[in-house]
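Supplementary notes for students who missed Thursday's class. We covered one full example, reproduced here. Read the sequence, then the structure, then the short commentary at the end.
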Amino acid sequence: MASAGKADKPIKVLCYTWNVGNAEPDEAELAHWLPENGGDFDLVVVGTQENKFKPGDKGADAPDYDEAVEQMESEGKPIPESDSAVQQEDMPLIEQEAVVEAKNKWDNMIAHRLGGGFDVCGHITLWQMRLTVHARDEHVKGPAKCITHVETAKSATGIGGVLGNKGGLIVKLDYGTTTLAFVSCHLAAHSHRLTSRNKNCQEVLRETKKKIGHKLLDAVSQFDHVFWMGDLNYRVDLTATGATFDDSKEGHAAHHAAVLDLVEKEDWDELMKSDQLKNSQLRGEAFVGFTEGKYHFKPTFKMERVPDCKHKLQRIPSYTDRILWKSMPQWADRVHQQSLTSVPLVSTSDHKPVCSSFEITPSDGLHHAGERTFVSIVVCQRCCLRALAQTSYLCQLLGIPRTTCIYLVNMTLPGISCCSLQGDAIPVAPIHSGEVAFCASHSNIE
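Structure (token representation):
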């Protein structure tokens, strides 16, 4: 329970996502995004991908992990099934130990920059992915403690749907009366794998559903606010707006030049018309109901490993690194994004980091026993009748009196097909356009 006077203060959160590119970060470059001693933030959330390196791995010396894994798969070589970098396969033992030591170096860099006033309240890893929630000391211990019920979960969505070269990490916590979840993902790479990326998101939610919070609901269906970030790997594809480019090297170069022309003109809105994530949202295929800020900066991938932004010809410049959020309907106006920026001066990776700061107005104490809370279950309109028909069963599962249920059914988007009910007869993600919500006593849910 939050201490007196804490519950009405805005929760200040800094979210940071970065594909480290398997190169040793430069600790001095943390100053470009992380305030010394954490500034005035209550929570600092850091999600990283490809965050494994040998001491001294710098810039062009670092391997391209995505391409290494895919090359091994195409050649029929076994993919490591443990938390081991591809480049460790033939390392002497002493070098493998150096990689393990370096794995902690990033965490130590962050801790040193934040100083003694912060503690880690949630931390989870999967292969080369890491997600850590840092909180101010007084929020996690002592008489003013307000962070409780911390839970973590992970999902591997990589090769064969089981390996951890891709996947998602979740940290959930209660901050006083406000429930928060942070998701960090590394989704399928390459422009042509859009469908795989969307399926990755569904798989992350499905595989973590019984591991955090209420066991019958996924992460986006039960917490006040969910922040989703990572190297989501969605690409800019100008063919989505009618441009044509062939599959030749010359066609790729022309596509690359056309995107760079929009970048140099700072025509961010036109770029976003060709963004795969935005278009997936519009079609109801992924991240429906999520919000993003304006990406008024250059695409963060694929970069030369130098300060500032110089895009490599190898890939179409794209906004692969993203931060989104979704709130329960009654709390939608409680999240205020204060900033959304890239960090071009970070020079050691082929991705530029993205960070965003938020202020969250606390929820109004609806999570106390005996009071009413809301859980949102998202379905498409065609499924609503099926969902309503199963309400008695749903209420029985959750111990909710039948008379307490309230339904909010929205219009469906054109072209959205019927979603399937998943697990325990509850319609959950993949997220579609309509909503069914019910309210009940939180004490009954617990």
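Commentary. Residues 1-5, 81-100, 366-394, 399-446 have pLDDT under 50 and may be disordered. The CA atoms of residues 14 and 357 lie 4 Å apart. If anything here is unclear, bring it to office hours.
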